[in-house]
Amino acid sequence: MRQPIVRRLAVTLAAVALATLASPVPAKAAAAPTWWKPTKGLSWQWQLSGKLDLTVPAAVYDIDAETVLKPILTDRFTTCKAKGFDGVEPDNVDGYANDPGFPLTAADQLTYNRRVADLAHSLGLAVGLKNDLDQVTALAPAFDFAVNEECAGYGECGGLATFVKAGKPVFHAEYDLATTRFCASTAKLGLSSIRKRLSLNAWRQPC
To answer: What domains appear along the chain, each with residue ranges and CATH number?
Structure first.
């Protein structure tokens, strides 16, 4: 039996100084690049540890592309593109709401996140917004999909409606809640929900 075609996403850590993308990405003289634009309702698998299990019946696989953080995001994204990935999911893009170790405002974060998205698109890659629910409305136009952890557990899933209304998928995972406690409600919202273990190995409970 033929295996279904799956799309691959790369996780990339974005915990670097804002100066990394201080200069705008230069425009290309050639035609504007195209990138994968996923649709809502896709099934997905999220695995960041252990040997990759490609037998999981999911349309989208979100996996880690490398084990070492590249110093420059451009190099990281280019590497992902060269390896055949369709999109990237930059991590740690809500540092302003935590303690990154240096001054970072919400406005700084918006600028940085949009430039990350622009960089991915300039390389022909789709890009996903990881968490950062407080800035979803402002950032949804720049991103192609969202990845969220535990919005049901924290009662925050409604904040992702902007993506769903725009026809963009929300790949959502819960760790502590049983699927019976969130699948019905997140399905009504249009989220692609699964339950995972914190280790993010191959184990998965889809809705």
So the answer is: 7-15+36-206 (3.20.20)
